[in-house]
Amino acid sequence: MASAIVAALVLTMVALLGGLPPILRLPAQLLCVCEAPADASYEAIVIMMGEVEGRRVEAAAEYFRRGIAKRINIVQPESSLYEEYGVLRGQAFLARDLAARLGVPEDRIHIIYGKDMARATSSFEEARYHLGYLQAGAPESGTAPRKILLVTDWFHTSRARWIFRRVFAGSGIDVDAAAARPEWVAKWWTDEYAFIGVFNEYLKWTYYLVKYGLPKPDERPSPAGPPAPGSAR
Predict the structure, then answer these.
(1) Which fold does the domain 34-180+189-219 belong to in CATH?
(2) Per the confidence metrics, is the pTM higher than 0.85?
(3) Model pLDDT for residues 142-155, shown as the tens digit of each residue
(4) How far apart are CA 154 and CA 165, in angstroms?
(5) Which tens digits make up the pLDDT trace of 114-133?
(6) What secondary structure does DSSP assign to 15-67, as a single string?
(7) Distance (Å, rounded) from C-alpha 121 to C-alpha 125?
(8) Which of 35, 69, 159, 206 could form a disulfide bond with 42, CB atoms 3.0-4.6 angstroms apart?
(9) Contacts of 89 (CB under 8 A, 6+ apart)
(10) What residues contact 13, with CB distance under 8 A and at least 6 apart?
């Protein structure tokens, strides 16, 4: 009897979810900057750190191969015990190695630190360190870009773009964002990583809004658009 009740509940939930995808997609659509870059006008792609599976690097490498940007920049995040005990190298170095395996020349990948080799502990610090690097003239490349493209998980795109635009205000550098695996917007509730990512992102948005204030009109996410690079998970 108990198994029959459980089965009935599962079937009911499946039926409900199957009939509500437009409503279920809304929380994800509000988070995602899902438009694919339209041209090759970006001097640099910025891979946001914070995930270890390589989805962001994979998408960034595909954009690079398509000629969207001339180079890739990565801010080194805080170290972990794996790095401190010599098991793994820093996350930015791992991202660089993966990008190279995916066809990006190593001399087109630049790893960035803050002042006195400081490492980023948040998206806000990634933006600050990146701006300092660009205002110093991006020494490895010789010129500072006027337009950069952030590549990150789809649920992180709107907040990442908002943070960078806040930090970069008045610098003359334009900031856009592109999503890794944006196809998951349409089914985020079926995947554990995406499900947790959406809920965590709303918590982070709440924290940042309390700390830094409401976004201006040009900082708000746009409606979901055509899919960007990324293979099915």
Answers:
(1) Rossmann fold (3.40.50)
(2) no
(3) 555 689 999 999 99
(4) 17
(5) 777 778 888 999 999 999 98
(6) HHHHH-HHHHHHHHHHH---PPP-SS-EEEEEEPP--SSSHHHHHHHHHHHTT
(7) 6
(8) 69
(9) 83
(10) none
Tokens of 2: 């108990």
Print burial letters for 200-226: b (CB count within 10 Å at least 16), e (below 16): ebeeebeebeeeeeebeeebebeebee
Condensed to tens digits (0 to 9), the pLDDT of residues 69-116 reads: 989 999 988 877 777 777 778 888 999 999 999 999 999 999 998 777
Q: Are 119 and 79 within 8 A, CB to CB? A: yes
CA distance 217 to 105: 37
Q: What angle do CA 19, 24, 28 make, to 5 degrees?
A: 150
User: What residues contact 158, with CB distance under 8 A and at least 6 apart?
Assistant: 30, 31, 32, 33, 177, 220, 221
Phi, then psi, of 109 in degrees rounded to 5 = -115, 125
Q: List, in order, residues 6 or more apart from 61 with CB less than 8 Å away.
A: 72, 98, 99, 102, 103, 104
Place of tokens 């907040």: 159
Element (H, E) at 70: strand 69-75
Copy the structure tokens of residue 47: 């891979």
Cβ contact 228:185 at 8 Å: no
According to DSSP, the β-strands at 147-153 and 174-180 are: parallel
Nearest-angstrom CA–CA distance, 35 and 187: 18
**What distance in Å separates the CA atoms of residue 130 and residue 145, rounded to the nearest whole number?**
11
